[in-house]
Amino acid sequence: MSTATAADTTLAGYDAEQVRLMEECCILVDKDDRRIGFESKKTCHLMTNIKDGLLHRAFSVFIFDSQDRLLLQQRADEKITFPGYWTNTCCSHPLNKEDELVEENQLGVKCAAQRKLEHELGIPFAQAPLEKMEYLTRIHYLAPSDGLWGEHEIDYVLFLRANVDLNINANEVKATRYVTADELREMFKQADAGEIKMTPWFRLIAENMLFGWWEKLDQLDSVKQPDVIHRY
Questions:
Q1: Distance CA 156, CA 2 (A)
Q2: With helix as H, strand as E and coil as C, how does 127-143 read?
Q3: Residue 152 lies in a domain
Q4: Is residue 86 part of a domain?
Q5: In whole angstroms, what is the distance from residue 161 CA to residue 90 CA?
Q6: 172-212 confidence digits (pLDDT tens)
Q7: Which domain holds residue 189?
């Protein structure tokens, strides 16, 4: 991927911690989610590379409390992609490291989710145990953030039912809120009116699958599609 010519300028002016995180290495995959290598988070999120087909692995966590409300976060303004956007509980990437490369039972993705829940929201590992995370399915989507950055991911959808303690990392998360299904529908109306912003992957999951899953939180096995990659 040809990013060298822009190496000194693409991250100029951004938050220092977010720039540092752009050095992490994401897992490259083909359209069938087979591992083909790794590249920096920066390389994976440049639209020039995305337009050339560069695709990486990701996850989206949805945490529901004991009242079946969904925990949302608003991404910090310091974020390089989709700053200030509302989204599901936690969205990030498994990295090219031993424990997050394990594919059996989606263990690597779940380890990454546990790590990021603690990093972004301060949720202790004990409150987000790997064995309680439910893998539902995957989505493949492409979405530009602005002219320079974007996302092109195969995204693993993970559900967790838990009451959690939050200790927000302000460099990652601007705000949080719990919503019912009806309250989330109202937020999408606000987004359509331009009053708030919602991430594209969250909208895709919500508009195509989330509300049906939400009604079956006690019967998730009946809606799981572990071998399917939904393409949008």
A1: 28
A2: HCCHHHCEEEEEEEEEE
A3: yes
A4: yes
A5: 14
A6: 999 999 999 999 999 999 999 999 999 999 999 999 999 99
A7: 14-217
**Which domain CATH number covers 118?**
3.90.79.10
Cβ(158)–Cβ(135) under 8 Å? Answer: yes
**Whole-angstrom Cα distance, residue 157 to residue 61?**
6
Is residue 26 situated within a structural domain? yes
Residues 16, 151: Cα–Cα separation, whole Å = 21
Q: Report, as residue numbers or ranges, the catalytic residues.
A: 91, 153
Q: Which two tokens stand for residue 8?
A: 């000194």
The type of residue at 110 is K
Residue 38 identity (one-letter amino acid): F
Q: For 132-165, what is each residue's pLDDT tens digit?
A: 999 999 999 999 998 899 999 999 999 999 999 9
Quick one: tokens of 111?
């380890």
In a domain, 210, yes or no: yes
Euclidean distance between CA atoms 176 and 166, whole angstroms: 9
The tokens describing 45, both together, are 């999120």
> What residues contact residue 30 under an 8 Å CB cut-off, 6+ apart?
36, 55
Q: Which of 42, 72, 45, 68 has the alpha carbon at shortest distance from 60?
A: 72
- pLDDT (tens digit, 9 = 90+) per residue, 72-113? 999 999 999 999 999 999 999 999 999 999 999 999 999 999
pTM given for the model: 0.94
Number of structural domains in the chain: 1
